[in-house]
Amino acid sequence: MKKKILALVLAFACVAGACSVETAVQQSNTIEAATKKKAPSLSKVYAAVKKAYGENYIPNMRLSKDEIKDRYGISSSWYSGAIAEVPMISTHADELVIVKAKNDSAKKKIKSALAAHQKRLKEDTFQYPANQLKLQASRVYVKGDYVCFFALGTISNAQSQQSDESKVIEAYKAENAKAVKAIQKLYK
After folding, report:
1. CB–CB of 47/53 below 8 Å?
2. pLDDT tens readout for residues 46-55
3. pLDDT tens per residue across span 8-38
4. 3-state secondary structure the chain
5. 8 A C-beta contact, residue 151 and residue 134
């Protein structure tokens, strides 16, 4: 009889322990889900980047899906949404591309296409001299499902007139960092 009672007590203890472990796991998953923020929408990412530059946001011509394919080599089958803007006036080099990839494979293809576009721009000897350093500072950036290309911002005349080109490029890199920071804030 003592053995049966001991077995029942041990069985009860195991069941109670298993229930408390399951409850702890469920509570942990609930807390993790509450703290993990949902990815921002494409329009919120775009608005945050544009706001970060204010009056100094120059791109003003939105590209269609076909133009995105032609200019960047990005197939519309790779993304669930995309915004690409360039300036109407060709003397400006500013570009903004934000693409929400459908999956990891598409994200890699988009990143590769934007890196190839960036390389072409950097090697283009027909660029206006004033734009060449801005393009050297351009950036391909990935956050979550988003793959972006930035060639944005303005620097002061004193900065742009420096004889040390590396300092001018660093100033433009700091300008592109504004877009990165604006997107990162949306994930906090």
Report:
1. no
2. 999 999 999 9
3. 444 444 444 444 444 444 544 444 444 456 8
4. CHHHHHHHHHHHHHHHHHHHHHHHHHHHHHHHHHHCCCCCCHHHHHHHHHHHHHHHCCCCEECCHHHHHHHHCCCHHHEEEEEEEECCCCCCCCEEEEEEECCHHHHHHHHHHHHHHHHHHHHCCCCCHHHHHHHHCCEEEEECCEEEEEECCCCCHHHHCCCCHHHHHHHHHHHHHHHHHHHHHHCC
5. yes
